[in-house]
Amino acid sequence: AADAGEAPAPSDDDSAAPAPTEETLQVAFISFAVANTYDEPMLAEIERVAAENNIEITVFDGNLDPNLQVTLVQDVIASGQYDGLITQPVFGPALVDITRQAIDAGLTVVNVDQILGDDFTTGATQVEGLAANVVFVPSEIGTKFGEQAVEACASQDLDPCNVAFLHDVKASAIGVALYDAFNAVVEGTPVQIVAEGETFYNPAAAQTAVADILTANADIDLIATSDQGLQGAVQAIEAAGRGLDEFLMIGYGGSAWGKERVSEGVVYSNVVQAPATEGRLAMEAMVDALRNGNNQGDIDPFADFPNNGVMTRDTADQFTGEWVG
Amino acid sequence: MSIETPEKTAPAPPRAPRSGGAGEQDALRAFLRRVPWRSVAIVVPFLAVFVALSIGSPAFLSAQNIGNVLDRQSGILIIAAAATLVLIAGGIDLSVGATYMFTAVVCGTIIVRVGGETGAALGIIVGILAGLVIGLINGIISTYLKINPLIATLAMSFIILGATKLVSQFGKEGVGQIRVDVPEFRWLALLKPLGVSLPTWIAFIVLIVLGVVLWRTTFGRYVYAAGGNAEAARLAGIRVNVVRIATFAIAGTAAGLAGVIDLARTPSVPENDAIATTLTFTVLAGIVVGGTSILGGAGAVWRTVLGILFIAMLYNGFTLLRIDPLFQGIALGVIILVAVGFDAWSRTRRR
Amino acid sequence: MSIETPEKTAPAPPRAPRSGGAGEQDALRAFLRRVPWRSVAIVVPFLAVFVALSIGSPAFLSAQNIGNVLDRQSGILIIAAAATLVLIAGGIDLSVGATYMFTAVVCGTIIVRVGGETGAALGIIVGILAGLVIGLINGIISTYLKINPLIATLAMSFIILGATKLVSQFGKEGVGQIRVDVPEFRWLALLKPLGVSLPTWIAFIVLIVLGVVLWRTTFGRYVYAAGGNAEAARLAGIRVNVVRIATFAIAGTAAGLAGVIDLARTPSVPENDAIATTLTFTVLAGIVVGGTSILGGAGAVWRTVLGILFIAMLYNGFTLLRIDPLFQGIALGVIILVAVGFDAWSRTRRR
Amino acid sequence: MPHTAIADTPQLRVELRGVGKSFGGTPVLRDIDLVLEPGSVHALVGENGAGKSTLSKIISGLYTADRGQLVVDGEREHFTSPREALDRGIATIAQELALVPELTVAENVFLGREPRTAGWIDRKKLKREFLEVAARSGFDLDPDQVVGGMRTADQQKVEILRALARGASLIIMDEPTAALARHDAELLHDVVRQLAASGRTVLLISHFLGEVLALADTVTILRDGRHIRTAPAADETEATLIEGMLGRTLSSIFPDKPVVADDAPEVLRVSDLVAPGVNGVSLSVKAGEIVGLAGLVGAGRSEIAHAIYGSVPRASGIVAIDGANCPADIPRTLKKGIFLISESRKEQGLVLGRPIRDNVTLSNMGQIASGGWVRTGDERRASRGLLDRVTVAGDDRRDVSALSGGNQQKVLFGRALQKVRKLLIADEPTRGVDVGSRRAIYDLIVQQAEQGIGVLVISSDVEEVLGLAHRVLVVRGGRIVAELEGDAMTEENIITAAFADPITTGGAA
Ligand SMILES: Nc1ncnc2c1ncn2[C@@H]1O[C@H](COP(=O)(O)OP(=O)(O)OP(=O)(O)O)[C@@H](O)[C@H]1O
Ligand SMILES: Nc1ncnc2c1ncn2[C@@H]1O[C@H](COP(=O)(O)OP(=O)(O)OP(=O)(O)O)[C@@H](O)[C@H]1O
Ligand SMILES: [Mg+2]
Ligand SMILES: [Mg+2]
């Protein structure tokens, strides 16, 4: 059974010292989706930091629906009960306007994890007035991912190296940005995408897709997809009676599951994402802004990660595995 | 609130399996029979929740909050009102969500590619027309080609969503998204005549028009007739297929209009099939909770408005009352069961 | 393939709006009349696609691929076969997806919490029973409480999804996800008696049993009668409500069984309402494409099997033929329209 | 605009030349020649399934003929929809009610022809014109009542008014009086005479030969889709019509009444039964006795039947079979030996869309199944046997909706025969049934009584009650207001009791 990724210990003392005597502040968190393993550690960190700073968090479930998120922010503004707002957009462009309204209405807004805006290639703030912006950049993940694909193929001198690439959702903004960046890197290398599928962030769907891909293509060398996708891929390979060692696999997500597979050597490498770190940084920035009026602006959650944020077999133990996978 | 859409003169009574015959009844009984119990039935839980929320949350009754709820529901209300016509005429349209998304993408792409006021105007017109065309196709395949409308519009929604993805490739500049944050277009969502948002006004007008059309025009009668007894309608000389196609066309156009309006509100298009599916689902849920039958022949626009706003009000209330999201689904389900159960119970009582 | 579920003796023809007594007709004509055109109708596109894929992709007909398709469809087939009974009896169950997810979570939670063989056994039993209980509740509120089954099961699915989230809190150790990768449980998915996966065997047996129940038992007759004409059935001495509740209970149990099987296949539960909704949608699409009417009274399990496998085969084919995901939706929609259109056309021809 | 003024309706001469029509390869009409003269009442008679409705549907544009021509006023017409026929002045009262349940009476009457101004319905005018049409027919209907909840007879009147409101030149009436009580049927007869007098044509399809002879100028007989003859009504008698329709003679419509032994035990005793529409009914039926329930439409006869059968909850009172109390629960009443053949075979009897075989065995699956498992061999034999008894020929795996009305009624009867019963309730057993089949059904009822089964027959056809029953109970307002036996059993007595002013008899309140 998978062990839960422990929340990383607060890396250092908080920039804003807790002052219990201060009044309790209210912060709304518009989540991506509440019942989601990726979001849980983020939420846990946000709540932990909030509790330490006499702040009450109210969580709203975006349930993967951008329109619903807009609705929720409207309601948060209208209720007039909140001092701060943390957004984790399902779809960045959709939230831009309403976030501006929230800022105009006097709320302190921090954006976490997902791009808030329409440019998925930059971690820079795209909405003026945000107190902080703590996001991963899909195209950066894609670039690192592409580099890992090239490295993995080179490690076995494969030329050409036939890759099955599983999008999470092919037509999604993140998907497009990530895939484009991946392609830009692998262009002109032995890496060749010979099969594509979609996981919809669901191991079962990935299992189906990979099973079909393996049936149709006898010569897959490398499977590239998210951690959820890899879980399905492993199931599909085992179900097909094939050996896991017949395939190179690279993943992104940095889950505990992914970390374990990397250290076992089943997965070649894993590009890390860090929901817990993001949650902690975002809430700390929120505290700083609410209590001290400090806007921290752009924060790179991967700044402190080793090995450029990529787990390999050698470096795996330097990572936490911030979510379960 | 725009729930004062006129009521149908004669409320549709349930088709009793056939029951105790009242031989002759006096005037009072005749009157009591005509009291629209069924209407009252869904109005009661609606009002109950409305009052409860007004008391429970001071923010609920604020102009801002009510304005928000109506503004954000405007697109759904427009679609749902039109889809009500489709249901009453004996059809069903599962493609409204996909059409909504498609027209938004088409409109957005044109605005991005053409630009300026021309782009905005063209985008609005072509977006709405795209909805109309899809509606016509839905109508034709589900009448003349005799494909069950359920499957016809389901298959159409796969096709439309696929087409949406293809079109959206043209609307992007590089890796970005279709974003239409241009004033030439966004006035559509940002104007607030008399303090009420333009989308709300548009929805209000569309609802009134559709409600009245259904209630007071020959076309409205034909819609009821086509769904209530298609054979009878045909014998009476009504072109049932034409009537049905017209309702599909209205629904498609409504979805187009809603897509354009919501694009102006948002102002970008998420590419996500689930949103289309959820929208279709929400629309049908609202219609059915309001009391329109999916079997056709009975229902009204005002019912749909009540049904949609009932659900929207509940979600709004959950947020205002800070109810844990983990419990919201349960609360929603239970309240709907109670409301509809009350409706069903009051209908049984009628006899 | 498990499509050889026995065929209904006399295929239900479309309900002609009106007909009279057949005088006398000669034997050949009588025979031609009896050829199950409607069945042929959906079988033809199924076979056409099957043959086309066999030719187009060498991998398609491989034992491995067919095995894969059947294995992964086993859960859906089980649910769809049971949901077919609900539809035939005149109901509809929109909660099967939610029930499926709920039972998987319940089963997984018990396995994680209790552990070992006891945990696995208990998980399986309680999971399936949970499905049964939900089915009973669905049945009771949509019959005795007279709430339209569409709304009743829709509201129930909100409640069940809410409950799923609550239960899953207990299934996790700390922050995480329910994962049940334990051999005491996974044998359910991994065993391959005679080279065919256990889930496929289970589905095969369930389909045969439900098909035969519908075809050859008094209960099956009552199911058709309850959906075909509830009042006539009631007057003929059939306890229509009990029959309907039984179909809901069967559907709930089937969803429970499928949830447990798929948990063993996966072996973790994604917590995502959209998956539940998509499942319900896929099930209904398959049933309707197969030709079972949502109005009740007509249909068959083998039709549903064909409908579900038709769609699954298309998706499988898209991957094997490396069709760009962007075009898959369009292709799927068009093929369904053609298949069902052919069906409709052949039915018109019959007269 | 609906033309309600009779004067400006043009006369129409409709002619069929060599018309043929088949369904699924089965010929239903063969080479029919027919002329409908303007200003006449032309009756069409024939057995169930003879093709009468099909013929009328070809004229009204619902079907198109496979062969032959339709000639209207000398022009060849090829209607492809009822709309075109309506535009040409041909309106139809369909055999199966074709009303929109959710619309009101007035809306249904003017459906497709609403008085309007630019798409808006002129509601005042609608009502005014409705009242005009209603007055002309003598039917008393509330224009604002929703049609769905109305009783069949009233719906039939709406249907009739609709045809009148079209101001058509040719009105086809397909069994318009099948569901009407005598009083309303007579009103319709007046209307038909008025129409003919004003120069319009009426094509009347009816199984009531008396009605046909009284109203029609010309009668056409169809048999098995063939034109047998067309002759002036004055030249026909009931006997000649029957002979033409059936191809054989029928000495008498009613079989001899079986003898009831004086000491025959009581099978049914009902005491002070109160239920919806039933206001305190007591009655009894002896073994082998046929008891008739007469009364006006809506008097509550069907309600009494349902209360006895247990298909509606009873407020109070006792129903006893062979002295044993019988609860209001259908499966249990069935077990006790009561069986109800309900009045509407389409809504309450048959499961359309299912095979004839399934329909015949539906009530008594236990007999052909062990442990819930249907023994198909037994089922086939049982079904065949029953269908033979009720003389329904042909493959019993066909959809029951493929049968003609009379044969459908016999299928329901077959269901009742599957098991030996104690009491059979037959509610309007011959509605819409041709003379030949009607005799077959009477024979079955009498056979049942001869076997010692008590029979309760409900019928709006007074002759039928008199011809079958040993004893007649007259129902009004959910009560039994008269019991007639022996010489007292006369049409006049029944009608008097059914109409009698409540105050003078003190029966109803
Ligand atoms: N709107 C209504 N609500 C309740 N009962 C009704 C309604 N309309 C009709 N009924 C009852 O349904 C019964 C069936 O109607 P139908 O026209 O078949 O009468 P009937 O069977 O000929 O008359 P009887 O009751 O004497 O047998 C009627 O007895 C009537 O009282
Ligand atoms: N739509 C149809 N499809 C197939 N067969 C039909 C259809 N309509 C009628 N028939 C057949 O045509 C024949 C004549 O039917 P029709 O309805 O014209 O009889 P009818 O003379 O009106 O009988 P009834 O007196 O029972 O009304 C019957 O054998 C009937 O089964
Ligand atoms: Mg007829
Ligand atoms: Mg009656």
Describe the structure in your own words:
The complex is a heterotetramer, with 1 copy of chain A (about 325 residues), 2 copies of chain B (about 350 residues) and 1 copy of chain D (about 500 residues). Chain A is α/β, with parallel strands linked by helices and about 325 residues long. Chain A has helices spanning about 40-50, 65-80, 90-105, 140-155, 175-185, 205-215, 225-240, 255-265, 275-290, and strands at about 25-30, 55-60, 85, 110-115, 130-135, 160-165, 190-200, 220-225, 250-255, 270, 295-300, 310. A 6-stranded parallel sheet of chain A has the order 2-1-3-4-5-11, with helices on both faces. A 6-stranded mixed sheet of chain A has the order 7-6-8-9-10-12, with helices on both faces. In chain A, strand 3 (about 85), helix 3 (about 90-105) and strand 4 form a beta-alpha-beta unit. Mean pLDDT of chain A is about 90; it is low at about 1-15. Chain B has a single domain (about 40-350), classed as ABC transporter involved in vitamin B12 uptake, BtuC (Orthogonal Bundle), CATH 1.10.3470. Chain B contains 14 helices and no strands. In chain B, helix 3 (about 65-90) packs parallel to helix 8 (about 200-215) and helix 9 (about 220-230) packs across helix 11 (about 240-265). Chain D has 3 domains: about 15-245, P-loop containing nucleotide triphosphate hydrolases (Rossmann fold), CATH 3.40.50.300; about 265-335 and about 420-509, P-loop containing nucleotide triphosphate hydrolases (Rossmann fold, 3-Layer(aba) Sandwich); about 350-420, no CATH class. In chain D, the strands form 6 sheets. A 6-stranded mixed sheet of chain D has the order 6-9-10-3-11-12, with helices on both faces. In chain D, strands 18-21-22-15-23-24 form a 6-stranded mixed sheet, sandwiched between helices. In chain D, a hairpin with a 2-residue loop joins strand 1 (about 15-25) and strand 2. In chain D, helix 13 (about 375-390) crosses helix 14 and helix 14 packs parallel to helix 15 (about 435-450). Classes of the chains: A alpha/beta (about 325), B mainly alpha (about 350), D alpha/beta (about 500). The interface between B and C is large, with 50 and 51 residues. The complex binds adenosine-5'-triphosphate (2 copies) and magnesium ion (2 copies). One adenosine-5'-triphosphate (ATP) sits at the interface of chains D and C.
